């Protein structure tokens, strides 16, 4: 069917052009659903340690869904360095990257470095943050989340309560 624009009212032409533009976008939208480079990440923030010196992950129970892109922001709010370590978690995700960030002008985050490949442990120094971008690929309940840094009393931060659980559905 050929369109004779001269015989179509202006309102009809606009509606037809909008419908054609929407139809042309459908393949791109369908493609983006499975294209991880086009997904917006789901942000989850975990504070490492407490300003009062207590060793803890806050929150200490995390839940992720397979196939979705996450940006896990690990923010150290304490005076001590902390690890976010889990061998089981690392085995159940695809790591896109880990970024070292710093607060820049106007409170915006500035990326200082990126790491790619298999990562099972991220150490964050006091007052700083790191971002772990990943996609869960296998389900399960993960109980080995811990901070293995040894405190001045000879016990690990995990022995002081810095442990957690992760569920991937």
What attributes does this structure have?
169 residues; alpha+beta; 2 helices; disordered N terminus
Question: Could you give the topology of this structure?
Answer:
Blueprint: H1 10-34, E1 42-48, E2 57-58, E3 61-64, E4 70-76, E5 82-85, H2 87-91, E6 93-103, E7 109-115, E8 121-124, E9 129-136, E10 140-146, E11 163-168
Parallel strand pairs: 1-4, 3-11
Antiparallel strand pairs: 1-2, 4-9, 5-8, 6-7, 6-9, 10-11
Can you summarize the main beta sheet? 6 strands, mixed
Mean pLDDT: 85
User: What is the radius of gyration computed over CA atoms, rounded to a whole number of angstroms?
Assistant: 23 Å
Widest beta sheet: strand line-up: 2-1-4-9-6-7
Structural class: alpha+beta
Percentage of residues assigned to helices: 10-25%
What is the molecular shape?
Answer: globular
Counted by DSSP, the helix tally is 2
User: Span from first to last CA?
Assistant: 49 Å
Beta-strand content estimate: 35-45%
Give helix and strand order, one letter per element, not per position.
HEEEEEHEEEEEE
């Amino acid at each position: 069917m050929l369109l004779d624009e001269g015989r179509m009212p202006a309102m009809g032409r606009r509606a037809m052009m909008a419908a054609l533009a929407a139809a042309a976008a459908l393949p791109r939208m369908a493609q983006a659903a499975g294209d991880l480079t086009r997904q917006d990440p789901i942000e989850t923030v975990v504070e490492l340690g407490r300003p009062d010196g207590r060793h803890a992950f806050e929150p200490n129970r995390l839940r992720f869904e397979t196939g979705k892109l996450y940006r896990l922001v690990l923010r150290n709010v304490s005076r001590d360095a902390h690890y976010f370590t889990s061998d089981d978690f690392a085995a159940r995700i695809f790591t896109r990257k880990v970024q070292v960030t710093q607060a820049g002008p106007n409170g915006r985050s500035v990326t200082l470095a990126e790491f790619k490949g298999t990562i099972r442990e991220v150490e964050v120094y006091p007052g700083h943050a790191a971002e772990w971008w990943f996609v869960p690929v296998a389900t399960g309940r993960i109980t080995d989340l811990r901070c293995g840094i040894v405190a001045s009393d000879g016990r690990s931060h995990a022995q002081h309560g810095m442990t957690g659980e992760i569920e991937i559905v």
